[in-house]
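User: Reviewer 2 asked us to show a designed sequence for the structure in our supplementary figure. I'm pasting the structure tokens here. Could you produce the per-position amino acids so we can include them in the response letter?
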């Protein structure tokens, strides 16, 4: 028997042993006279299972490989790369996790790879075998067929097999609420060594003045070849301050000189400034009309 056939038989033998070892054991029937032990909940539709794995397989271009995989519900992606004397091998495969009722998850995988200047394709059937209910580690075994080209440029089919040991973890892609977004923005705005304290409303005016000076300096640099001598002033008409937030409303006037003609251009309108206390200082945003 050829060497590759012996290797393939060995892989499938390991596959069968692993499946047999993973058979479910009968679970005890929960008592129906205690409703306090019943816990209900809903899974998040935004969770993605990620895996980083090291593996070995055949053909030889994936003898030792690194894998990065993602799974959401019944579909997944797996990126694989390895290094050989002839250069790197890279592949990307899509996985469909089947509803076959056996003790471990099974999948059908179809993908393509690139090695030594030529592309190739493959299709496999595999299974994921957890190390335990509470363990983040799992083994993945898959086998199938690969399509590649030989030295003469002719297409050839080869058996393919791979075994990996991987570490799994969840990525939570749940969209942030507006309140959560605000809290993250406030945390980013906190200076190093910040000691969280109560809002100091007396510093709001100086916060706005520093921002105004900064904007004017930016304008001088950005429009230096078009305008010069910019000026800007604000007159406040109302100030609402409570619960670590503040809203100041007023009117603004601004002017600058055109470098080419020397004429003065000006404008005016209303301004609304929103302030938020991040625990150490005020962050702000504004809108002009």
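Assistant: Here is a per-position design you can include in the supplement:
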């Amino acid at each position: 028997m050829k060497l590759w056939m012996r290797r393939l038989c060995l892989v499938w033998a390991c596959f069968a042993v692993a499946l047999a070892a993973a058979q479910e054991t009968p679970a005890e029937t929960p008592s129906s006279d205690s409703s306090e032990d019943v816990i209900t909940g809903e899974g998040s539709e935004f969770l993605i299972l990620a895996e980083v794995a090291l593996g070995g397989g055949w053909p030889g271009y994936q003898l030792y490989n690194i894998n990065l995989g993602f799974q959401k519900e019944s579909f997944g992606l797996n990126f694989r790369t390895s290094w050989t004397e002839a250069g790197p091998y890279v592949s990307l495969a899509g996985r469909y996790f089947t509803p076959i009722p056996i003790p471990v998850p099974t999948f059908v995988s179809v993908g393509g790879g690139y090695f030594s200047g030529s592309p190739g394709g493959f299709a496999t059937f595999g299974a994921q075998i957890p190390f335990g209910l509470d363990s983040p580690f799992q083994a993945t075994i898959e086998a199938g067929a690969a399509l590649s080209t030989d030295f003469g440029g002719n297409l050839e089919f080869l058996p393919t097999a791979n075994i990996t040991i991987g570490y799994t973890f969840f990525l939570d892609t749940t969209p942030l609420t507006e309140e959560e977004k605000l809290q993250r923005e406030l945390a980013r705005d906190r200076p190093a060594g910040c000691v969280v304290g109560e809002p100091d409303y007396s510093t709001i005016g100086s916060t706005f003045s520093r921002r105004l000076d900064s904007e004017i300096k930016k304008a001088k640099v950005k429009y230096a070849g078009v305008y010069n001598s910019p000026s800007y002033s604000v007159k406040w008409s109302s100030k609402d301050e409570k619960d670590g937030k503040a809203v100041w409303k007023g009117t603004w006037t601004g002017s600058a000189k055109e470098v080419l003609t020397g004429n003065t251009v000006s404008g005016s309108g209303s301004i609304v400034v929103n302030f938020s206390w991040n625990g150490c200082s005020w962050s702000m945003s504004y809108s002009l009309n």
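For the response letter, you might also mention the following. Helices lie at 3-21, 178-189, 204-222. The mean pLDDT is 77.
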